[in-house]
Amino acid sequence: MTFSPGDTLDGFLDSLAAATSLPVEVVLADNGSTDGVPERAVAERPEVTLLRTGGNVGYGAAANAGLAGRTSGFALVANPDVRFEPGSVDALLDVAARWPRAATVGPAILTPTGELYPSARDLPRLSTGIGHALLGWVWPANPWTARYRREDEAPRERPAGWLSGSCFLVDLEAFWSVGGFDPGYFMYFEDVDLAERLGRHGWLHVYAPSAVVVHEGGHSTRREPHRMARVHHTSALRFLSGQHPRRRDAPLRTVLRAGLGARMLTSYVSGRVAAGARFQRPAADLPATPAGHDGHHGRVGSVGPGGPAGLPDHDDGGS
Fold first, then answer.
1. What is the pLDDT of residues 19-34, one digit of tens each?
2. CA dihedral defined by 130, 133, 138, 139, rounded to 10 degrees?
3. CA 200, CA 196: separation in Å to the nearest integer?
4. Is 106 helix (H, G, I), strand (E, B) or coil?
5. How large is the C-alpha radius of gyration of the chain?
6. pTM for the full model?
């Protein structure tokens, strides 16, 4: 799921080496890189393999291709601009062992400027979604955004409605039991949709702040802000409409289409609306964790630096 990742890929692979005591297999599902970096990584690092997806297939479809044929154990789906803190992957595996019904386990995600990204959220519902979309950009601490993002509570190990697709550990048996990511989402909300389907089958999504990564993020938005705004809002419409599929819900779907369309157009001219709600917690709010983690035996089934086709990374949809 790489696309001309530049020097971010070396940083990913170097930090991964200190993130786990297990051997890893790194699968680069490549969507048409032209900078030669994935090929160089394969030539220099025996644990890395290159899988060409054949075109601009989207984030979820590329992830599915990278995980194809791996049906048991754990895989780590992550962007190439993620940097792992030492021991962070082992910490994710420790948490997975404590939560046997966890389909996904997600780390604390920090920004390069030291903010704690709200990566473990409730599933978006109409009430919280409308309040968050309308008010988040101007009043980040509003009760609807706080309820959706759960930034009003201290970081702790807990179940969540969904976890950011920019980096999470996934149980492959659970992943394939629902068919993996829905390739109908090119970018944004494929992680929300996956979590919702897994939840309906009794699986959990667990936030693990004992594991820490740093995610640069935002590359795709900076490169093509209007296109990404359009994709963001159409993906939101796809997900929310799918939650209300009945004929009698048609007026609601029309209102959703109009409201999200208006917000999309507003984001074209307002950087504040496009940026969404500012994050409310600093990295210092993370709980202290003891040095070192329990040892594991086996292998992390595959580690896929992620990014949608034609784009360098996964930018989360719940801005």
1. 999 999 999 987 777 7
2. 50
3. 6
4. strand
5. 19
6. 0.89
